[in-house]
């Protein structure tokens, strides 16, 4: 029998809630939520990215990406430009309004990071980030390989 003392997911779940709640509070004023703010960062670093590239990077399903892109487009933060060769494919770019969010969103994520990891050293933070990303990538590869029922 597994007791709550041996539940290794509990700590991650608690930290996830701390981060999500803090982000939710701090990005709400921009019409964003704790999940779609990251699109702004990604498109700043990868102008012209496709929705499929977002899906692969963010480990989200296609319909979630589609809804988020539609919302961010409606809010005026991103724009879709058709591919010159394949008009069915669109490339995503930040608008000037989206670019203006860079600093406030950076501050919001730094605050959430401090809330969750403020008591850790920089080396410990980097180590945790690397391990969590390694686990996420491994899970996504396994899910794609097996068509896992666990999303």
Can you walk through the features of this model?
This protein is mainly alpha-helical and 151 residues long. It has one domain: Winged helix-like DNA-binding domain superfamily/Winged helix DNA-binding domain (Arc Repressor Mutant, subunit A). Helix content is 63%, strand content 7%. It has seven helices and two strands. It has helices at 8-27, 37-45, 51-58, 62-74, 96-99, 102-117, 122-146, and strands spanning 78-82, 90-94. It has a two-stranded antiparallel ribbon with strand order 1-2. It is globular, with a radius of gyration of 17 Å.
Jot down its keywords.
151 residues, mainly alpha, Arc Repressor Mutant, subunit A, 7 helices
Task: Give the SSE map.
Elements: H1 8-27, H2 37-45, H3 51-58, H4 62-74, E1 78-82, E2 90-94, H5 96-99, H6 102-117, H7 122-146
Antiparallel strand pairs: 1-2
């Amino acid at each position: 029998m597994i007791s709550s003392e041996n539940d290794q997911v509990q700590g991650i779940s608690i930290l996830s809630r701390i981060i999500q709640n803090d982000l939710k509070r701090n990005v709400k004023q921009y019409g964003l939520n704790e999940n779609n703010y990251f699109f702004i960062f990604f498109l700043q670093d990868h102008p012209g990215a496709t929705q499929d590239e977002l899906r692969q990077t963010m480990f989200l399903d296609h319909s979630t990406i589609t809804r988020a892109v539609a919302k961010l487009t409606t809010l005026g933060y991103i724009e879709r430009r058709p591919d010159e060769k394949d008009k069915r494919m669109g490339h995503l770019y930040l608008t000037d309004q989206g670019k203006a969010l860079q600093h406030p969103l950076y501050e919001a994520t730094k605050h959430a990071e401090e809330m969750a990891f403020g008591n850790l050293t920089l080396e410990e933070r980097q180590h945790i980030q690397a391990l969590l990303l390694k686990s996420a990538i491994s899970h996504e590869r396994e899910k794609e390989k097996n068509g896992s029922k666990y999303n």
